[in-house]
Design brief:
Elements (H helix, E strand, L loop, with lengths): L6 E3 L2 E3 L3 E3 L8 H9 L4 E3 L3 E2 H9 L4 H8 L4 H6 L1 H15 L4 E7 L8 H7 L4 E6 L10 H18 L4 E5 L6 H11 L3 E4 L5 E5 L4 E5 L8 H12 L6 E5 L5 H10 L3 E4 L1 H6 L2 H15 L6 H6 L9 H14 L13 E3 L5 E3 L2
Parallel strand pairs: 3-4, 3-13, 4-6, 5-6, 6-7, 7-8, 8-9, 9-12, 12-13
Antiparallel strand pairs: 1-2, 10-11, 14-15
């Protein structure tokens, strides 16, 4: 008999630990219905952008300046529905399904645009996720100053709202644990580790860098696990969502042992459809059915704490696996030299 998969995230009770991460799929009611039926415990809407909100606030009294100063572009509304439709989407999804609906804001600086968070709350969102994207920082600005801008933004947001707030962090902080603890002091309820990053490349013909968005690559879970463990050090008391690289039930279990309360799944849904959620949950259920834990929450409560160690032992975690063996695992699968004939019989490659 399958054991209880209920868990808690930012004070909300979720029917399962699978949260559908922010993406355009989650503004489509039919897609959301299918993902909830497959077992999703919560839904995160695609982010409303600071540029969109600024444009909508300026366009009535300064239409030309609204375009030139806000950074708004029409395709942004196609991505998430736009500021007006976004509120309506929340209301409709709350009528459609019983799982928490989490709004999302994407921005970099404090300002009047944060007032829109209150509209998201008024529309019925159960929580808000702040995706802080700072772009390319000034080389003369210190790391402390960059971090302080995030802390101020999170503090301002928390002071405006009564619903839970999560901060979706990047991997770029020098001391992730320090930033996590500073965020906790602002009243933030959770962390999402990590924000998805675009893929950078350089066009040789144009002699310029290019940026494109792509699904999370296979084998990327390790970075997420490392971030969760680092963030939890020092007794951090925040909910954590693992975001990036979760493809299977085993991946989800690893993330929860590292310290996650829920796992966000997005890329795998694009690859396989809503059935990916069901497959991950089946993997978790199979493990629990053969484990001594009575429920998922009991399993999560049994995970080991993250404790400070001396610099010598901290270094040993890195140095020991580096020097213990000269054999290194290759994550790129070896391509078979065999091909098949018309009947599926293997034939040696030429």
């Amino acid at each position: 008999m399958s054991k209880e998969l209920t868990t808690a995230y930012m004070g909300m009770e979720l029917s399962s630990p699978i949260v559908v991460g922010a993406c355009p799929l989650t503004i489509e009611p039919e897609h959301v219905r299918q993902m909830v039926c497959a077992g999703a415990g919560a839904i995160v809407l695609p982010s409303i952008l600071q540029e969109q909100i600024t444009h909508s606030m300026m366009k009535w009294h300064d239409p030309l300046g609204a375009i030139s100063e806000s950074g708004f572009q029409p395709q942004q509304d196609q991505y998430n529905g736009g500021t007006t439709e976004y509120r309506e989407t929340i209301r409709n999804l709350k009528k459609l399904c019983q799982v928490p609906i989490i709004g999302s804001l994407n921005g970099s600086t404090e300002g009047s645009w944060l007032e829109y968070a209150e509209e998201i709350q008024a529309a019925g969102a159960d929580a808000i996720e702040l995706n802080w994207q700072d772009g390319m920082p000034d080389p003369h600005e210190s790391c402390e100053a960059v971090e302080s801008r995030l802390i101020a933004l999170a503090d301002s947001l928390c002071n405006r709202l009564s619903i839970p707030v999560a901060v979706k962090m990047s991997q770029r902080f020098n001391n992730l644990a320090s930033v996590a603890h500073r965020l906790q002091s602002t009243g933030v309820d959770g962390l999402v580790l990590f924000a998805h990053r675009p893929q950078w490349d350089v066009s040789i013909d144009r002699m310029h860098w290019t940026i494109r968005w792509e699904l999370s690559p296979t084998g990327s879970l390790g970075t997420t696990l490392e971030g969760i463990v680092h963030a939890r050090s020092g007794g951090l008391d925040l909910s954590i969502a693992a975001s990036g690289g979760v493809r299977t039930g085993e991946d989800a279990l690893k993330a929860m042992i590292a310290g996650a309360d829920v796992v966000m799944v997005t890329s795998e849904i694009y690859r396989q459809g809503p059935g990916a959620i069901q497959e991950i949950l089946q993997g978790i259920s199979h493990f629990l059915d053969t484990s001594p834990h009575d429920s998922l929450m009991a399993f999560q409560q049994s995970r080991p704490p993250v404790e400070f160690t001396s610099e010598r032992f901290g270094r040993l975690e890195y140095v020991d696996p580096l020097t213990r063996s000269d054999h290194y695992a290759d994550p790129i699968p070896e391509v078979s030299g065999l091909t098949g004939d018309a009947y599926g019989h293997p034939v040696a490659g030429q």
